[in-house]
Design brief:
This protein is an alpha/beta fold and 294 residues long. It is 32% helix and 12% strand. It has one domain (14-289): NAD(P)-binding Rossmann-like Domain (Rossmann fold, 3-Layer(aba) Sandwich), CATH 3.40.50. Strands 3-2-1-4-5-6-7 form a 7-stranded mixed beta sheet, with helices on both faces. α4 runs parallel beside α5 and α5 packs parallel to α7. The structure holds NADP nicotinamide-adenine-dinucleotide phosphate (NAP). NADP nicotinamide-adenine-dinucleotide phosphate (NAP) binds next to α2.
Length: 294
């Protein structure tokens, strides 16, 4: 069970990671592709020749991003992950094979417990449930590609919480913004495990990827700027020091790279990160029906 090693590290850029990779003829979706890591992921994929669709809830922002990625084939589709009807509409609009689904969109540490119109805690709904429905809806398109890859942006935050099936919605315990974020990010990792187990026969492989600590994105929008500097998941010195090092497996998991096969050429740049981690374990499939909507 050897960790994935790539030779890339803290100072590596997306352009350096993807150099020499030809994605001509490949089709990719990047959720949340109009800000932060999603923009750079889309830029790198388009620069390597892929046709990229930015799946965003703010299509005007998506169009501005697409226009800013000069020379690339970048499209925009509307997707609001907290709205299952929006996810279904995005899926219905998609046609043809899909080589790469980058489940990048996310929210972090909403200060108060909030629910979607369908009754789900917002971090779990955005970070996991919406992406779960999206991937399931796009399964046939992924299977139609010649070896498809799903990349889920996870986080070191997964160490803060397992998926608490007994209380997904914080009905029985006090709401904690970081436990909610951690739970959702653990779900991202477990989804990658189970998607690969179930869909490898269809040529679909999934990885969960911790991108490292990247300050300056919109992820910290809900945080008090005065405490941002002390925020463990973003800028804690321990996090920064650990970037580029293999992540120790969480309890019940195994080392990175033990489940997914070697990363194919179609993988996203982030999947080539030394922090890439797949976490096999007892991974029940997470469906909305398992929870207790308000
Ligand atoms: N930055 C880090 O240090 C770090 C560390 C570990 C993991 N990550 C993960 O990396 C991913 C990207 O984060 P980032 O740092 O690039 O943050 P970001 O700039 O805030 O990007 C997140 C994106 O998600 C989109 N989004 C939020 N809610 C959505 C919804 N309901 N439907 C559709 N899109 C939605 C946002 O769209 P709007 O612009 O419309 O709000 C935004 O484009 C996240 O999954 C995050 O958990 C980041």
């Amino acid at each position: 069970m050897a960790p994935i090693t790539t030779g890339f590290g803290f100072d590596s850029t997306a352009a350096e990671v993807i150099a020499g990779v030809d994605l001509s003829g490949r089709r990719a979706i990047v959720t949340g592709g109009s800000s932060g890591i999603g923009v750079e992921t889309a830029r790198a994929l388009a620069g390597a020749g892929a046709e990229v669709t930015l799946a965003v809830r703010d299509t005007a922002a998506g169009e501005r991003t697409a226009a800013a990625i000069a020379g690339g084939a970048v499209r925009v589709g509307r997707l609001d992950l907290v709205d299952q009807a929006s996810v279904a509409a995005f899926v219905a609009d998609w046609s043809g094979p899909l080589d790469l689904l980058v489940n990048n969109a996310g929210v972090m540490a909403l200060p108060a417990l909030e629910h979607t119109p369908e009754g789900w805690e917002v971090q779990f709904a955005t970070n996991h449930l919406g992406h779960f429905a999206l991937a399931v809806g796009l399964h046939d398109a992924l299977a139609a590609a010649d070896g498809a890859r799903i990349v889920s942006l996870s986080s070191r935050g997964h160490l803060r919480s397992p998926v608490v099936f007994e209380d997904l919605q914080f009905d029985e315990r006090p709401y904690d913004p970081w436990l909610a974020y951690g739970q959702s990010k653990t779900a991202n990792a477990l989804f990658a495990v189970q998607a690969t187990r179930r869909w490898a026969g269809d040529g679909i492989y999934a990885n969960a990827v911790h991108p490292g600590a990247i300050a300056g994105t919109n992820l910290s929008r809900y945080m008090d700027p005065a405490v941002l500097a002390d925020c463990p998941p973003l800028v804690h010195p321990e996090d920064i020091a650990s970037v580029g090092q293999p992540i120790p497996p969480a309890p019940g998991t195994v080392a990175p790279g033990t489940l997914a096969p070697a990363i194919p050429a179609a993988a996203a740049p982030a999947a080539a990160s030394p922090a890439a981690v797949a976490q096999p374990g007892a991974a029940p499939v997470l469906t909305p029906e398992r929870g207790q909507p308000h």
